[in-house]
Amino acid sequence: MAIIPFPVVGNWRITTVFNDTVDDPNYDHATITINPDGTFLVLEDGTPITGRWVQIAGMLMFKVLNIDSEPDTSINLVYCGNWSGTTINGIVSNCSGFDYWNGVFTMHLIL
After folding, report:
1. What is the sign of the dihedral through the CA atoms of 17, 43, 67 and 82?
2. Is the Cβ–Cβ distance between 49 and 67 less than 8 Å?
3. Which residue positions in the chain have pLDDT lower than 70?
């Protein structure tokens, strides 16, 4: 039986819960377009967010490289998750030592 890789390329609805504070988490919703060339684009409130992604086995990892066409040198966001069906669930970290911009995310393929 052949294993068919899950098609990551396409449009996804992503919800991220950032743990800004224990009492008041920050929920963020957006549409992410994952392109076949290893890049992605999020238009959040008209602001373009771009970066690179890689798919390894059942895992998807992507890193924010630019926010509003400026290199992202401050928050350094990295997302990593695994998928089941048309859903990807995982964690997000700023990888910069800040206590904020860490959390969890879920993505649903827009069919």
Report:
1. positive
2. yes
3. 1-6, 20-25, 67-75, 96-100
CA pair distance 7, 87, nearest whole angstrom: 11
CATH number 1.10.150 given to 10-109: no
Percent of the chain that is helix, strand, coil (3-state, to 5): 0, 60, 40
Could you count the other beta carbons within 10 Å of the beta carbon of residue 82?
13
- Quote the percentage of the chain above a pLDDT of 70: 77
Instruction: Give the whole-angstrom CA distance, residue 62 versus residue 39.
Output: 9
Amino acid (1-letter code) at residue 108:
H
